[in-house]
């Protein structure tokens, strides 16, 4: 093949999310795979989008993001974390969190740099690092419970380390970092020129009364971090593709140098509508933990006697399902059987690893109507009964 046709990511295929959603559509299966709600958005948000377009907000938005929207974001960071963030120099609106992650990585990772990621790592991280010319060092989280091995991180951080990719609440592990984890992250990156990119798109979805520990609330980490958030998750509308990145002015300047040539600016009427919607709801985001916790508990209760094990889910849109007691297939094969025999699409975990360990886990999305969760649980229970019966 011509070298140019091989592209820059010859070993990369289509994301597991797209693959599983496509298969679910083809087979008319229940899609508990890709993380998106199947219920309606608040009609008020739709109304405000229509009003923004009718009101003429249809040309380029400012490159950094609509000032009014960034002010809403800053006000919330003040209310929730007690922070005083300057929206002008420290907040950038991006095309979903994925663009923020991609642009931040392109902004600071140079050829030869090393970037640390924790496996299972969200699938967009490593390709973004490679496209920047960097090398991703993947350190597995420890079982049981997907714990950080901070000693190993300390031993891995070296001269070439430029960035640590952190993610809490963690997709797909469904665990939330503790304040001790943040202290350890600060310690391993201290006194070196190591930056942090913290993917916090599920900041509002932390369960059982626990607090979300943002790098922004840790002053030392905040000074060297990009923190990334998502309105898609907060507003139950993943198709908006509007996210934002909070970073100190020096990092924000570098981020914007890439952002301006990547997406330039984000859909203007959507930014208007989101800002108006948030202005009507100063408490935005705070209802999400209870909302999704009820969904998690509903699904867990419905699967309680299935024979599947349900690892603790501390946050996110997801619940892991451990089929190890019922079946010894690998997770890709098990997800395929669930799809074709039980009519349920899930996300296997091995695509999130450089070297997949022997895990018997698939990820279920809980951001679904109660009736979808009930139907999903019924299909999983019936499949489990078949497995138990041999
Ligand atoms: N964040 C979504 C998930 O984890 C996937 C988004 C995507 O498909 N790019 O399921």
> How many helical stretches?
16
**Unreliable segments (pLDDT under 50, ≥5 consecutive)?**
none
Q: Tell how many strands the DSSP assignment holds.
A: 12
Helix-strand sequence: HHEHHHEHEHEHEHEHEHEHHHEHEEEH
User: What is the overall silhouette?
Assistant: globular
Rg from alpha-carbon coordinates: 21 Å
Derived from helix and strand composition plus strand pairing, the structural class reads: alpha/beta
Major sheet size, sense and barrel closure: 7 strands, mixed
Small molecules (ligands, ions, cofactors) in the structure: glutamine
Q: For the record, give the distance between the C-alpha atoms at the N and C termini, rounded to a whole number.
A: 47 Å
Oligomer: single chain
Strand content: 5-15%
Structure explained in plain terms:
It is a single chain. The protein is α/β, with parallel strands linked by helices and 390 residues long. It has 16 helices and 12 strands. A 7-stranded mixed beta sheet has the order 2-8-7-6-5-3-4, sandwiched between helices. The chain has a 3-stranded antiparallel beta sheet with strand order 9-12-11. The protein has a two-stranded parallel sheet with strand order 1-10. α10 links the parallel β6 and β7. The longest helix has 19 residues. The model has no long low-confidence stretch (mean pLDDT 97). The protein binds glutamine.
């Amino acid at each position: 093949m011509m070298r140019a046709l091989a592209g820059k990511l010859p070993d990369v295929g289509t994301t597991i999310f797209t693959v599983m959603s496509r298969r679910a559509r083809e087979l008319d299966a229940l899609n508990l795979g890709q993380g998106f709600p199947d219920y309606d958005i608040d009609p008020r948000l739709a109304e405000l989008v229509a009003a923004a377009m009718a009101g003429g907000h249809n040309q380029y938005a400012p490159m950094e993001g609509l000032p009014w929207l960034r002010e809403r974001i800053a006000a919330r960071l003040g209310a929730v974390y007690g922070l005083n963030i300057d929206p002008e120099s420290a907040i950038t609106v991006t095309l979903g969190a994925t663009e923020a992650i991609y642009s931040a990585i392109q902004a600071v990772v140079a050829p030869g740099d090393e970037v640390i990621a924790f496996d299972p790592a969200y699938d967009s991280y490593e390709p973004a690092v490679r496209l920047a010319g960097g090398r991703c060092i993947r350190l597995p989280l420890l079982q049981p419970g997907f714990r950080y091995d901070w000693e190993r991180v300390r031993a891995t951080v070296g001269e070439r380390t430029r960035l640590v990719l952190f993610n809490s609440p963690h997709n797909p592990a469904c665990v939330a970092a503790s304040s001790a984890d943040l202290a350890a992250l600060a310690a391993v990156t201290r006194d070196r020129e190591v930056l942090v990119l913290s993917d916090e798109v599920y900041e509002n979805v932390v369960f059982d009364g626990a607090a979300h520990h943002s790098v922004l609330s840790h002053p030392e980490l905040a000074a060297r971090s990009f923190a990334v958030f998502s309105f898609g998750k907060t507003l139950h509308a993943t198709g908006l593709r509007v996210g934002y990145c909070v970073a100190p002015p020096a990092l924000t300047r570098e981020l914007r140098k890439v952002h301006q040539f990547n997406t330039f600016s984000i859909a203007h009427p959507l930014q208007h509508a989101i800002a108006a919607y948030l202005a009507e709801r100063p408490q935005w985001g705070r209802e999400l933990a209870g909302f999704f916790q009820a969904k998690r508990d509903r699904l867990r209760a419905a699967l309680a006697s299935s024979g599947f094990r349900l690892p603790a889910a501390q946050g996110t849109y997801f619940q892991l399902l451990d089929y190890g007691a019922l079946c010894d297939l690998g997770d890709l094969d098990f997800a395929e059987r669930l799809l074709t025999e039980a009519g349920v699409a899930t996300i296997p975990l091995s695509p999130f690893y450089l070297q997949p360990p022997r895990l018997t886990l698939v990820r279920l999305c809980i951001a679904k109507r109660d009736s979808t969760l009930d139907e999903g649980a019924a299909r999983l229970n019936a499949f489990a009964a078949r497995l138990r019966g041999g």
